[in-house]
Amino acid sequence: MPAREFSRINANPEASGGKIIRKSALLYCGDRRRFAGRTPDAVRAPRSCTLTSCAFLHCLSQILTLRIGEIMATLTHHHKSEPSRTDFIPPLENGDRLTREEFERRYEAMPKKVKAELIEGIVYMASPVRITRHGIPHGRVMLWLGTFAAATPGVDFADNSTVRLDTNNEPQPDAILFVNEEFGGGTYVSDDDYLEGAPELVVEIASSSVSFDTVEKKEIYRRNGVREYIIWRVDDRAIDWFVLGDDSYTALEPDADGIIESRFFAGLRLDTAALIRDDLSAVLATLQSGLSARSGS
User: Fold this and answer.
1) Could you point out which of 75, 198, 244, 295 has its C-alpha 20 to 30 Å from the C-alpha of 33?
2) Is the dihedral of CA 141, 142, 145, 147 positive or negative?
3) The overall pTM is greater than 0.70
4) pLDDT at residue 43 tops 60
């Protein structure tokens, strides 16, 4: 039997070079398949087998190599199972200063109920929405715009949709009215389903005149060419309708009947006093009068 294969030795000390090896020890190195599933007592070595120092060291080296391989495989598996820090996406925080790309990356990883905007490179997180101070007024505006869009080919409206205005501004207006691209509008839908460009009309529901809708957002809408901007200041019981001139917004004043009509969208009329007092019938009747005047009927 070759010296690299050996097992327990039952011979006298002389047979093992003067070294005594206990009967229970099994030293094996070589063709391991011959010993698969067999106990040490079932493995017999020829009486002539001798344990040499070289053979012992060679066997020990193989055993250590196998054991190190098992340890490395375990460590590798554990490492792969842990998430990489490069995959970690920080949550959005109010006041963060981010690029538009980083804002979108973090926003997409947030829970769906979260609403956030990027205004002049700063993140603004929306507070919980109250029903009478925001939800109901918002719904009334959507009904008004939706009725107009239904009667106007090439015009569409949207609710709380992110708008890419420029590299530092990505607001999420309460309502927008816009002309579709194929009808000559100034916006288009991107491949990843965002509205790019300035809608022709934007509506924001604000609590009062101190809201940032009346200052910061008004400025970015002006700078990016939003033609008309409406702010419903609910707590102040007032509605402001601005139209873009050469390079600034000018407030439209109601006529003698308290009605304001859009300078861009023909037939879009609003009875501001009726909307504030929640008289939907009067609001829709005023709108219908504008649509009828537009069609000449």
Assistant:
1) 75
2) negative
3) no
4) no
